[in-house]
Amino acid sequence: MSYRNTGLGLALALAFAGSAAAQKPAADAKPADPAARLLHRMDRNGDGRISFEEYRNAMLRRFDARDKNGDGKLDGEEFPKSWLAGAGIEDSGHSISRDEFSDQLEPTFNQFDADRDGQLAGAELESFVAARKARRESQP
Known about the structure:
Blueprint: H1 7-17, H2 34-42, E1 50-51, H3 52-66, E2 73-74, E3 96-97, H4 98-112, E4 119-120, H5 123-138
Antiparallel strand pairs: 1-4, 2-3
Helix pairs in contact: 1-4, 1-5, 3-4
C-alpha cells in the first residue's frame, strides 16, 4: 500500500490513541473526561503531560498488540478497516509495517505540540482529543 498521504499517519495514530485498552493497571479508576482517559493510558510518569516518548511507546504497544502473527506488519484482519475511512490513501492491500507506522508518529505528535516542548498538555491535549473525536465521528 502506498502511504504518500500523511493523513494516514494521523488517522492511524488517532485510531490507536482512541483504543479502549488501558495501559495502566486496572486498579486505577477510569476517568470520565476524554483527555484524562488519554493521560490515564499514556502518561507513564504521572506528570500530567504526554511526552513524545510516552506517546510513541503507547502507540507501538498498540501496534504490537494488533500484530497477531508477529510479522512486524498489520494486514488482513489485523488492519482495522476504519483506518481507511477518509485517510486519502490508495487501497492496495491494507498493510503497514511497524517501521512505516512508527515513522508517522512524530509528525502526528508535532501537529498538536503547539509550543514545541515535546509534551502534550492542557490545550494541546484537548486539541488532540478533539481531533480524535472528529475523526471517529467522520467514519461511516
